[in-house]
Amino acid sequence: MAGLLTLIQGENFRRAAVISGAVLVGIASLITLADSITTQAVYHSVPVDMIGILIFIGDILISGYIIFVSLKARQYLVTSITTLQLILLCAVEYLALADHAHIPELFSDELSGIMAAIIGVIGGLICVYALGYMREYHGEHPDRPDKRHRFFGIMFLFLSAMFGVVFSNNLLWLFFFWEITTLCSFLLIRYPETDEAVKNAFRALLFNLVGGACIPVAFLVIFLGQGSQYIGLHELVTAGPGIALIPAGLIAIAGLAKSAQFPFSSWLVGAMVAPTPVSALLHSSTMVKAGVYIIARFAPVFEGQIVGILIALIGGITFLAASAIAISQSNAKKVLAYSTIANLGLIVACCGVGTAEALWAAILLIVFHAIAKSLLFLSVGTVEHQIHSRDIEDMNGLVTKMPRITMMILIGIAGMFLAPFGMLISKWASLHAFVESVPPYGILLVIIIAYGSGITAFFWAKWMGKLIAVGEPQTKDESHIPRSEKNILYILSALTIGVCFGFPIISWYLIEPWLLTMYQSVTDLISLSNIEIMFMMLFLVLIMPFSLARFTHSARRVPRYLCGIPEGRSTAFMGSCGINREIALSNYYLERIFGEERLSRISVGMGIFLIVLLLNILIIGGGL
Q: Is the pLDDT assigned to residue 565 strictly greater than 60?
């Protein structure tokens, strides 16, 4: 599909190919999800050894391309790291030929099914949304070359690589698909071909290569220390911390870079220069989800280990710091970016703790975040095309101009922090898991998450207030929004609400059975009484818009008292000395306290310290 799309120049043919491809991918991923409910984990061996050789050749080609473009752009640090990574990979391949154990190359279990559904359904919806968005994008930027055929080809290649990541048992195969996701993100971020886009694309490439270089080192540890039978993901995890801890810790560093944790977070913020569908894809169903997925796979290995505690602290600090930075941002896409970094930090913290309950919360966070965040990014993209701004201050009173789109943004925001939507449920579960984790680190994580959650509520509530503020009456106009965009937003809004009803099913039939295979015994993770309370709260939340609509219909509107002579508008008056004054309301962003540059500098320093400490622990033996 990716190759076909790069060849299709006609818009109608491209539209048909993208929609049909998205439908097929979505259906296939849902079938896979259903199969994972009814069957145990399935392992597949590829009988043809030539596939492994082709995978290695693919690694060489990817590295060769990155070396070529980095030399051309004089990004010599990228060139050096890629060359080092290629040398390490050649050494791994040499050892693999000398000591070649037969392990299943592919596998599928409940976690793979969940991730496949996120990739296929959410990713497919984003691709369909991009059809209308990219047409408007090039209409607004006629100076930029129209490479939509290449754009959609890379989007589908991205999804294909993500499927490879979540279904690969052979870590050598997983690394190949991992590198494809890095390359695709680089190509999509630089799509505008502006100086800023190219700069941020190389930054994303650099940070992910730095983290990715740890994976071949982990392979060397496996081949030189444990043996090639542990090059399988399942085999390595089930071997326990005694064998798996050092390789798992190294691979987790790559996951930290991929999921934009401090000190690697700036690449994801810089990626906001790309078109909105790219941002949505990176944040919801690809790139960053690959990072937390691989850390979640190794979570049982980290339980009770100092390596896991350090990973959890990195995630906790990222959650707190990124949430604080989001307060000072008025750019909607930056708020969403730092919110993503923060929530990924919470997922990483849960995986670092490594208990069954913490991992349960992490997987639910992945699901809820993917749906709500894709809805928010795509909604903001639609608003940006209509008001030609992504500044939250310019969205003041948007509910009177674009009521339907505003309602969908509000649903997405509610899904991120309000009860009884999924993110709050997962935060509650994570707090409970942290309390019971290794003292005193568990209490420290509880404090971090408690303060971070309070900050989160602050910046989301500010945004909600701007959207529903009513000033001068505005004409409702949503007719210019492409139908494909609106339909995708409707679907994502329904999914955001629907998953709140369906999360017990996800837990009972997918997450808990998988946790049983990892931990052998799992306590009751969510009681029936808690579910009943959450459903009651959800019902009350759903009836609120209808009650408000009835109230406002019968309400009597009166003009504001402005302490002066009205000037014919409800937002202006003549004050003392005959001076005309305009009412202006704006949010307070507390830049002096939560400024991006200041907090980023502190957080990056703490992140570097913890990463260096983690590497030293791994060098001297791995854990306690």
A: no
